[in-house]
């Protein structure tokens, strides 16, 4: 079951109402006002044609498949009236609507993102080239491969993250003891090897490679490079943050994050995954995910910001945030999982992209991964079931206040 969303104009208002009844269908109602007035779009959750008729008496079911189609013509002429569609158990209709939405809306979003990435990558490459000239240890890893840029994470059509992978982590041990939630530290394996490290001046007295110190140095270098760049009129550093963020054309935020790639190892805090009582993913995919490893990011974390005392805050600041971005993407490669994710992101960008929105694409990805565990059979991720999977995710979304991260035990409020 999936909705068809019409073109939106300024003044769109999204309202969500919950029904306490058991069997859920997705209902989209668009009320068209008088000519020239703003269109208001509401997303409702209702049950069946009877419920639809209760809230909209002018509508009559068109068939037993659960589609409420065109309603009354209104009282102000043919330009007015209520229009609604409710997609129920009609698999053919659902499949058509999903395909239509994907080809129209999702494809448009992808095209916009692709153009934005191409423009952003050119600017960031220029800046990182200057950074490397000043400090050869920061080597740009942003490269184009068959028309796609590797090392860019799309958070939204206006927010991107470029990952700058650093070299020579070898003299450090990865320590993940759970003391810093979602983070780990890199500690010298032998104090006598301090001078052998490429990053010797960023090692603390306790022997930890400080993520904060590396980020501070990189922040300074990027700021200097932006000032020298030919793009300085359209590219500015975002103030009041230790993260390296650029504002480009006043439309795009690009974060450049220093990182270490950890291949072939798996975090202790995620050792419980995959759970033995859940058939998904199968052992071969799970082994592939674990061998893929993870990243360590130098970036601001909630843990560091929320520490009340200076010493604890210093420890958190030296830690590296663990990212399982590659592992998550590997899990979504099979069936129509990635297509479902694209639809979820498009819906989020259309309706829930407002300042301080708590709904991020990462939250949607986490919900999708839990949906994969709930519906572990591969046939349940065939294209004909995409609508059901999307509805299941949004139902959970509305009913649940707390969300657990997929691999670790961290919890966030939605």
UniProtKB/TrEMBL annotation:
Protein name as annotated: Bm8165
Similarity-based family: Belongs to the mab-21 family.
Gene3D superfamilies noted in UniProt: 1.10.1410.40, 3.30.460.90
InterPro entries per the UniProt record, alphabetical: Mab-21-like_nuc_Trfase, Mab-21_HhH/H2TH-like, MAB21L/cGLR
Record organism: Brugia malayi (Filarial nematode worm)
Domain Mab-21-like nucleotidyltransferase: 148-334
SMART domains: Mab-21
Sequence ranges assigned to domain Mab-21-like HhH/H2TH-like in this UniProt record: 337-398
Pfam families noted in UniProt: Mab-21 (PF03281), Mab-21_C (PF20266)
